């Protein structure tokens, strides 16, 4: 494996160690957002390079991993910005189409939300729960998933997302509305009502 | 639609929007009145907030449930790039 067995000081910011320690994590994080493995690899590579260039700015008050993840989040956003530049067409979601899937003509729920058991926080320790979360994300239309992740997982500001993706606030709200309805239903069906007895 | 009197469809949309923008006072009042009477929309509201919490938690997990593995080829390439930077860039440790 071409290991040059160099003497590396046991420094907190050792680049080779970074790649071994955080490479897979950052790659997994990127792959949630983008489907293409080579794009995800590039994002990880750019993250490490940026981190390395600005490593003097790293303050030990956050963990290395948190710091690297926040750099990756910016790289992901840049990726969507560039992608948007190349691909100009805007997809607007029609709110009435969204609503008709979930509500009847009188504005009532077609399928009523159920009480979630076990209590959601009791699921957080359970690996199976997170698998279901990821599965539900994977089932979401790509467009919705992108916006949902940028907003809910990466916690970007709504205005920032609108700017990057060049969509109107109204369209953003409709996309998130749709994404939340789909995600809510998916979690309910695949976890909270089927695995309710699991510990 | 009568002002301030919302049905489930309207409430669910506005509750979602309330996670992304500041609603108007009449909207807030309308939602509150509806939620007071409607258990389903109350559950919905609670659950979409739970989902947000879960997603923010997911952003901080130590390891993803089904982690993807960066190929050793990619790892080698990135390490090489970083080493080149280390050697060419002025490194003051």
Tell me what the structure shows.
The complex is a heterodimer of chains A (199) and B (93). With 199 residues, chain A is mostly helical. Helices cover 64% and strands 0% of the residues of chain A. Chain A contains 9 helices and no strands. Chain A has helices spanning 15-33, 37-53, 64-86, 95-102, 120-123, 127-139, 142-153, 158-165, 169-192. In chain A, helix 1 (15-33) crosses helix 3 (64-86), helix 2 packs across helix 3 (64-86) and helix 7 (142-153) crosses helix 9. The relative contact order of chain A is 0.10. Mean pLDDT of chain A is 87; it is low at 1-11. Chain B has 93 residues and is mostly helical. Chain B is 65% helix and 0% strand. Chain B is built from 4 helices and no strands. Chain B has helices at residues 8-17, 25-37, 39-58, 72-88. In chain B, helix 1 (8-17) crosses helix 2 and helix 1 (8-17) runs parallel beside helix 3 (39-58). The N and C termini of chain B lie far apart (66 Å). In chain B, 29% of the residues are buried.
For the secondary structure, the number of strands of chain A is 0
Q: Overall mean pLDDT score of chain B?
A: 90
Give the ordered list of helices and strands of chain A: HHHHHHHHH
Q: Compute the number of helices of chain B.
A: 4
Most extensive protein-chain contact, per-chain counts:
A-B, 68 and 52 residues
Let me know the largest β-sheet of chain A: none
Helix count, DSSP H or I runs of 4 or more residues of chain A: 9
Distance between the termini of chain B: 66 Å
Task: Please state the structural category of chain B.
Answer: mainly alpha
Q: Which word captures the global form of chain A?
A: globular
Q: Estimate what percentage of residues of chain A fall within beta strands.
A: under 5%
Task: Quote the distance from N terminus to C terminus of chain A.
Answer: 43 Å
